[in-house]
Amino acid sequence: MTTEPFRKLDVTKIGKVEVAQFKDKKILDEGVLDELRVELFRLIADRPNLDLLLDFSNVEFMSSAMLGLLGQTHRKVNLLKGRLKMCGIAPQIYEVFKLTNLNKLFAIHKDAAEALAKF
Amino acid sequence: MDATTQANPLAGGGVTKQRRCVDVVIAEDSRIQAKMLERRLVEAGHTVRWAIDGAKALEMVRERRPAIIISDIEMPEMTGYQLCAAVKSDPLFKTIPLILLSTLSDPVDIIRGLDAGADNYVTKPYEPDYLLARMESLLDTPLEDLDETAGVVLEVTLAEQKFRVKAGRQQVLNLLVSTFENAVAKNKELIESNQSLSVAKTSLEKSNTILTELNEQVERSNARMIRDLHAAAKVQRSLLPGEAIAIPSMTVAWRYVPCQELAGDFLNIFPLDAEHVGMFVVDVSGHGVPSSLLAVTIGAFLTPKISDSSLLVRPGKNGGPPVVSGPAEVATRLNRIFQADEQAGLYFTLLYGVLHVPSGQLRFVSGGHPPLVRVPKEGPLELIECEGFPIGFVPDIEYEEQTIQLQPGDRIYLYSDGVPEAMSESLEQLGDDRMKALIESVRAQPLEANVVHLLDAVQTWCLPKGPLDDVSILGIEWHG
After folding, report:
1. How many CB pairs under 8 A join A and B?
2. Of B285, B370, B429, which is closest to A67 when you measure between CB atoms?
3. Contact B286 A101 (CB under 8 A)
4. Is the pTM of this model over 0.80?
5. Considering CB atoms only, which of B370, B393, B468 is closest to A71?
6. What is the separation, in whole angstroms, between the first and last Cα of chain A?
7. Which of B34, B127, B269, B406 is 20 to 30 Å from B189 at the Cα level?
8. How confident is the model over B230-283, as pLDDT tens digits?
9. Across chain B, what does the average pLDDT equal?
């Protein structure tokens, strides 16, 4: 893995799981989204069997365009036979997942502890 | 060094025109400048004694008579003027030529130098070769030969100051010549800087012309981009319903407000064949050019014109009547064509419905799209969901459709998430409940008024900035 620091993510390794916490409160404009895309893809790189947990606990607002990036992330991790889980999603953001049915596509957990136990 | 000079220090400047090597006293309080001058003089073959001020220099002169004195003006202890006056008032030394190094910032300096009996001025900063040339010329005309006017005192008034000048004629002449030469040198410098200024001005004018041209280019590109944007927006508007939608047994009303010139949303409603009407709202994620390009591409597949590219109506087999595709089939095929991975993470949500007009049966599919609103002629309105992932998220999935039976007078609303997710200034969403209440409050009014009311409410909710997302609303009423 590259040693270049992440600007938009707090990445820590807990056991064998990479936990990536979004630093932004608001993921709304395209600039933030583009940076996140670069950093998430860099984190995944070509790592087979990657266990990745995306932690949303800092995020208060999220545009639905972010779902596209989550979809891409999901696809990449799956192709590499890894596992992707999400946690810490605020109720108003969970609504976006529900509205698009994506709460059924993604493995979503209440908090990091619960998600880590399920890997 | 000149043998004569060495043998008799009192003899002053050398008498031979050949390589003249003389003894020089420098009075200069700046060590660096003194050293630079000393080096140059030594290179030219002279011997040099350096004094840090006028008083020390005078001591050196008394100790051994030099052929020439070069003195700075501003010095501690004894200034250049004072040194000059002391040398020139001494009958033993008055014929030693003395060059003052001056900044010549004031005409009074010249008179002051003349008054002190200086023979020559060299302005600082000076070219060493120029100073050496001045030295040579002074040494060429020994002052003792030209002493006939010594003792004559002239009074000169300059800048309200009186000076008593008692210099010999040759001295005055030498000094004036050096002053004039200095002025000429300064003038030359001035002309040169003037020329560089004029060159700089020309180059500035050129840069200015280039800048103006670039500016015009930017303006032209800008104008072209605006034209392109308008043209693109026009193409995008072609995805919307035509002016008059006349479908028997139905009333249609719609509003579409993109949040930027180019939108990710579009909607349409049209007859698919004699009995079926197709209707949809599509919402491509993001805004601007990429989303709008994808919207136009999707639009080409969602056309009622019977063709191989239309996903909605296909030509009948063996010349038979055209076949209307079911909504689920349309969503499934769209999902195969448009995978977000292949389009920079752009995906879209879709609500597509097919109404069988004679029976009022509405089949619809949702690709991650907000539920449709049904307003029955009587009774409470309801949100009807149909589960399905956004188009482009999961490859090769089969979408499932819902069927609802309309009653005469029922209304159906399709809309994009720009309605329920409209954000107020305090970042509060309009929400499903408020949206339902808004429709409820005017349900007795005609369909058109309902759609307008909902749009107005969304725009008011988003004041002062206006909606951050495209807003699409499509309402139908089935008369039975």
Report:
1. 55
2. B285
3. no
4. no
5. B393
6. 21
7. B34
8. 888 888 888 899 877 788 899 999 999 988 888 889 999 999 999 999 999 999
9. 86
Closest residue in chain B to residue A65, using alpha carbons only? B285
Inspect the interface and report whether the beta carbons of A102 and B368 lie closer than 8 Å: yes
C-alpha span between B283 and B278 (Å, rounded)? 17
Q: How far is CA B98 from CA A96, B18, B62, B113, B164, in A?
A: 95, 22, 15, 10, 19
Please check whether residue A1 lies inside any domain of the structure.
no
Report residue A15 CA to chain centroid gap. 18
Structure tokens at B277: 């009407």
Write the Ramachandran bin of B344: left for phi over 0, alpha for psi from -120 to 50, otherwise beta: left
Q: Domain range holding A45?
A: 9-117
In this structure, chain B runs to a length of 480
Highest mean pLDDT among A64-68, B201-205, B425-429: B201-205
- Determine contact: A61 vs chain B, CB below 8 A: yes
- The domains located in chain B, with CATH, are 3-194 (3.40.50.2300), 238-478 (3.60.40.10)
Residues 6+ apart with CB under 8 A from B345: A37, A68, A69, A71, A72, B285
Nearest by CB to residue B417, choosing from A64, A69, A102, is A64
Indicate yes or no: CB of A72 within 8 angstroms of CB of B388: no
What is the least distance, in Å, from the CA of B401 to any CA of chain A?
14
Q: Give me the sign of the Cα torsion angle B117, B123, B129, B130.
A: negative
Residue of B nearest to A92 (CA): B429
| Structural contact between residues A56 and A67, judged by C-beta atoms closer than 8 angstroms | no
CB-CB contact of B430 with B463 (8 Å): no
* Three-class secondary structure of residue B180 per DSSP: helix
Chain B contact present for A101, CB below 8 A: yes
Q: How far is the alpha carbon of B253 from chain A, nearest alpha carbon, in Å?
A: 25
- Flag whether A50 is in a domain: yes
Q: Is residue A36 part of a domain?
A: yes
Q: Write the CATH number for A54.
A: 3.30.750.24
Domain total for chain A? 1
Instruction: Give per-residue pLDDT as tens, A35-74.
Output: 999 999 999 988 999 999 999 999 998 888 899 899 889 9
Does A71 reside within a domain? yes
- CA-based nearest residue to A103, from A118, A117, A86: A86
Nearest residue to B388 (alpha-carbon basis) of B396, B400, B379, B378:
B400
Does the CB of A105 have a partner CB in chain B at under 8 Å? Answer: yes
Q: Which of B292, B347, B417 to mutate to test the interface with A (most CBs of A within 10 A)?
A: B347
Picking from A59, A75, A101 by the largest number of B CB atoms within 10 A of its own CB, the best residue to mutate is: A101
Nearest to residue B126, comparing CAs of B103, B144, B146? B103
Contacting residues of B for A69, CB less than 8 Å apart? 345
On the question of pLDDT at A107 being above 90, the answer is yes
Following CA atoms A25, A28, A31, A36 in sequence, which dihedral angle do they give, to the nearest 10 degrees? 60
